[in-house]
Amino acid sequence: MRKYHLVRRADARLKRTLIYYAIGILVSLIIGAIILVALGINPLDYYGRMFTIGLVGNRYGYKSIEGLLKIFVPLLITSLALSLSFKMRFWNIGGEGEFLIGAIAASIVAFNSTGMPNFVTVLLMCLAAMISSGIIGIAVAALKVKFNTNETLMTLMINYIMLYVIRYIGETKADWNFFLRDDSERPKFGTFPDSAVMAGIPIGQFKLLWSVLIALALTAIVFVYLKYTKQGYEISVVGDSSATAKYAGMSVGKIVLRTMFISSAMIGLAAALAVSSAGTISDTITNNVGWTGIIVAWLSKLSVPAVFVTSVLISILQYGCQAAATQYPAIDSNYADLLQGIILFSVLVADFAANFKIVRKEDAKNA
Amino acid sequence: MKKLISMVVAAALAVTSVFALAGCSSANGGNGGGSKASFKVGAIYINSQNDTSGYTYAHHKGVTEGMKKVGLDPAKDLFIVDNVPEDDEKVKQAIDQLAGNGCNIIFGISFGYINAFEEKAKEYPDIIFSHATGYLSNDKNFNNYFGRIYQARYLAGIAAGYKSLALGNNNIGYVSAWGTEYAETCSGINAFAMGCMAVNPDAKVSVYEISTWGDQQLERQAAETLIDTYGCCVIAQHCDSSQPQIVANEKGVFGCGYNSDMTTEAPAAHLTAPIWNWDVYYATAMKAAMEDPANFMTKVGIYYEGLNAGLVDISPLSSNCEPETKEAVELAKNLMKNGEWDVFSGVKLSFSGSAGSVAVEKTNAALVTNDGAEIVAAGGPSVEDGVITGSMNYYVEGVTQVN
Amino acid sequence: MEYAIELKGITKSFGPVAANKNINLSLAKGEILALLGENGSGKTTLMNMLSGIYMPDSGSIFIDGKKVEINSPEDSGKLGIGMVHQHFKLVERFTALENIRIGIRNEGRFLHGADVRKKIEDTAAKFGFDIDLDKVVANMAVSEKQTLEILKVLCYGAKIIILDEPTAVLTVQEIERLFAVLRKMKEEGHSIIIITHKLNEVMAISDRVAVLRHGEYIDTVVTKETNEKTLTELMVGRKIELNIERPVMDKTHPLLEIRDLTVKNDEGAIAVDHINFYIRGGEMLGVAGIAGSGQKELCEAIAGLRKIEEGQMIHEGESIVGMSPKKILEHGISMSFIPEDRLGMGLAPSMSITDNMILKNYNESKGIFVDRKTARIEAQKVIDRLEVVTPSTETPVRRLSGGNVQKVLLGREIKSGPNVLITAYPVRGLDINSSYTIYNILNEQKKKGVGILFVGEDLDVMLALCDKIMVICHGRLQGVVNSDHTTKEDIGLMMTGTVNIVNKEGKTDGIAKDSAITDEEGKA
Prior knowledge:
The structure holds three protein chains of three kinds. Helix content of chain A is 68%, strand content 5%. Chain A is built from 13 helices and four strands. Chain A has a two-stranded antiparallel ribbon. A two-stranded antiparallel ribbon of chain A has the order 2-3. In chain B, helix 2 (55-69) packs across helix 10 (278-291), helix 4 runs parallel beside helix 5 (114-123) and helix 6 runs antiparallel to helix 12. Chain B is an alpha/beta fold. Chain B has helices spanning 2-29, 55-69, 74-77, 88-100, 114-123, 149-167, 183-199, 216-228, 243-251, 278-291, 296-299, 325-337, 385-391, and strands at residues 41-44, 78-81, 105-108, 128-132, 142-147, 171-176, 204-209, 234-238, 254-256, 274-276, 303-305, 312-314, 347-352, 359-364, 367-368, 374-376, 399-401. The radius of gyration of chain B is 24 Å and the shape is globular. Classes of the chains: A mainly alpha, B alpha/beta, C alpha/beta. Chains A and B meet through helix 1, helix 3, helix 10 and helix 12 of A and helix 1, strand 2, helix 4 and helix 5 of B.
């Protein structure tokens, strides 16, 4: 006999949702604290360091901010790009693969750019990355439009294909392979010439990379694009009901192709900015943004301002977890991952709780 | 709704920036310098410090024991960034973290950290950077360190050689992460084979390459293939887990482990294992960095030691070993410790006699690869260290790769 | 009197919406109870609680006098309740026999061979079903599928059978046959609940009628002691005018002429087969036919959404064949199609009324931005004129009730001032009041001289509303009849293909070609 059942709440109020989120995070922090206490660590101390991303007592605090921004920028742009395609109900889960394509294309430019002006090189890197990622996006969209293939599978496979491509590049010592360090006997990715390294605006010791400003501008552009432009309107209609879009005389295929190009090209841009900021490439350059971006997009319900906020918070969480773990020899990154996982899970549960409630079935009062 | 969101953002940014300022000011104020009380050690690991075996485990053990030797407290003075992949950007961030926490010396244990260490050594001239298995250094604050593990492998080879003689089976197997691609694995295989052949001149070493540093499934399969298909009676290994030894135990053959004494995992099979005593290096490096960081490169420099310093050794011989093994190993070990002889030279050792009267004999013989190329002429000197650590890419006579 | 089912104080809410409020209902053994109510009055919800799909928030259910708890369809089946849903739950690729066999319980998992077939055949014979057990469901007509569904629940031993709007998809003749089966079942001692909102059927088949209104139980009356008018009043709560207005206009020249139109469906089969007709200004032409007879394909072809295989479509003397949907819209032909789920086509459910208003002309404004300012004004106009009940112009369409959704859709379609309005199932799923609003909107357009093609389901409504009715069967024209000179039965016979009044030249009575345009001109 089931005594309880779930009922969807009629009104999804933001205030309640935020309160539930707060409760969820609190519960996860308490679970984390129990583990910390078991390891003999003061949880308040630990969390203090975590949420200040290890800045307290840090000799090079500005570097921590730079490091945080380097995590934040690709995550933000990728999440925006994924939101764009999700809004169209195009399940692009190939963020990782598209990112790697962009990273490889940008690196090809970068490794061959010795002596070119910095601005030109970085611009070329961005273009190369956007075009190559965009083409893959279009290819997947075309298969979907033309043959109704399953985009989830196609984009998923791209992730693995590209992961193996970059591993091949990274592990193959050969004359053609300009990606690798010349002087190393073992295969090892080289470092970009200075011409390909992202410049920035120095603020004291801190260097505000151009990529941060680009990401902020892009956020504003995507916001306006989705909300106010005709193309954004088309994306909403196609996502809401592609049959309706067709009835309205929209060319659904064209819209899908265009949007997937923009989405993938944005991920390519994120990759170009990331490799340029890092000054190198590696098979872990994505930092899993293709996956994390999916979480960000969904937690944000595909709203651009929410994507921005969520990206900030998740970046702080990621960076903070690692920074705090560094200061305790007993804590390894597995604990940091565990804590991140518990927090994200709690937030998802809180989101569920904010939208549904459990109702006790009242026994009938025999009339 | 929008208001709420913007408030959250504003609050988050405000908190972050306040702490950022606090962080900067305290950084300017409290730079303690290199006195012993505030000496801090940073370490970047490829896996987790909480591992219970394997490469990172061995280094972490070395770091903590080394710290205790020089009077540091690993619970307070050690800062670790773990699970750092060979990705320059992530290594650089890890270094920034450790530098920010005031570490005076930073160790990086994986080869792929090399670019980041090179770059960051320039950026932080006050911090000593020490990188394992690499080949780069500078003359101020960046060295690399490694050990003559091939010497220990030669000794393990002696144990294996006696076993094969006793069993009358010349086939010896070797599960290796990589083959000739990496000088580290290649020199290890060669030294082991030469150890085997010093005892049993007819011994043949079959190498199975699994193309990854660690994969328990593959390690297992490789050992099974070597035993079942190639009829090997001893299984040596250069990979992370003890699976090859466990397989040898299951199938009733013998084996030489790596990194730790694997007799517990394979009680009926294990002979001995080449092991690292990383604390020897870590204590040396930390001591030098604490006492006289300015002269670190002259005092420690590029560190490449072997049996003589105790950095490498073999685990205690198990009861599975043949009775002659102990004496032969001692003889060879002494020759190498005293610097009278080394593995990759134009002189070969051969052992004769039964237990209690084992004798070693040196004969001049060229070092020849398995396709007949002469590397060192008969009686010639040992190959250079740079070859052993960097460019050795051939197998010696008697070695074949089976896959 | 012993009851097969008794419901006491059943309440069920979805969020803040109470679908059922304190409902008391009883079904006697061996009776046919009609459950009557407008759309959204909670009939299906109530029955879904009997079949174990939903669970009541409060209240109790008694079967054969015993209090029971129904937590799943399985529980429901064990209690001898069988429900035939509006949307059939059959495996398309299986045969009738296999469909029945997969659900048989308590007699071993895999039943093969003769005994199962024998058992099914016996049951079919007992109730007078005419069914081919080896036919694959995908090849069955709608009525066959329904027969199979009923046979299925009988084979599973159901004593109480619930039928959710079983007649909606049937022709008049098929309805008669269904009713015969139901009477047979009643004789065998089965108890039946039939959900419907067609009063004539209620009168024809039921013993008693239970009426729900807005989720509340109103009353149960004995069918013999009541009449359609009383039932209507019970159902809608006040006396209403049953007559649908049909203004008679001076008809103009033909606005849209269709000649020999042939169109294929998504599967590549011929859906519309050489159809000829025209619509004049100030005229409403009804299209009658069993569901899936090519109505959708016809509408889509005219709107330019579907490629035509053959034939001509001439609008005000100009061929519109091959024009883009947008061009056709600009030409003055507007099409709205209400699909079964009511939101799938024509509207973007999650978007606001404003955004839906500009769906077809968002591209007309200058620049890259959507002109929402004008759209908002237009949305307000539609809301005011058609009395759409909504908190604001920015409310997502999905939040509106069915009638208001359809008002928004029609409002958009007439906003562009078309002279040909094609509307398919505009009152699908609407209650009587909302339906009348829609009829009024259409009549207003007609008075303005717009030619209307009305694809409908309910023959009574079409006879009352349309000037002429075109009947199609399997995509073929069966004839065009004048509403004043025909009966429902005649149309029913044409719908099933029994009667065809099209003459050999492909012309029908009451249909003429527009002599102003020759075939040659039309092809251009």
